[in-house]
Design goal:
AB_hydrolase_fold; two-stranded antiparallel ribbon; alpha+beta; MAG_DAG_Lipase; four-stranded mixed β-sheet; Rossmann fold
């Protein structure tokens, strides 16, 4: 099954740009959504790439976010000032995907969230 990969930056309430990515089955609507959370000092686009592609090829929509200061996100490298902020950033992003899930579709190799 073909997989479409998408990258985007979102801004958290503190004004920090966070890198996000997603893998979707190209030819069908996802069976379910899977949200990936990486470990300390890691990032989602490289270390979780194989997992994202495998799950999307199996029909799932997969989404990841680089925490502030991790991967392609802005911020002091690997510095987590308050763990609650990291959790809130993930929660906000994942809820935005869930809220848009009813209205998303793929077109011209881009994930479009309406």
């Amino acid at each position: 099954m073909d997989v479409q990969y998408h990258e985007e930056y979102v801004r958290n309430p503190r004004g920090v740009q966070l890198f996000t990515c997603g893998w979707l089955p190209a030819s069908s609507s996802p069976k379910a959504l899977v949200f990936l959370c990486h470990g300390y000092g890691m990032e989602c686009s490289v270390f979780m790439r194989a997992c994202g592609f495998k799950l999307a090829a199996a029909g799932y929509g997969v989404f990841g976010i680089d925490y502030e200061g991790h991967g392609k996100s802005m911020g002091a490298r690997c510095y987590i000032q308050k763990f609650d902020r990291l959790v809130a950033d993930c929660d906000r992003f994942f809820k935005s995907i869930c809220g848009a899930a009813i209205n998303f579709y793929c077109h011209d190799d881009e994930l479009l969230l309406q």
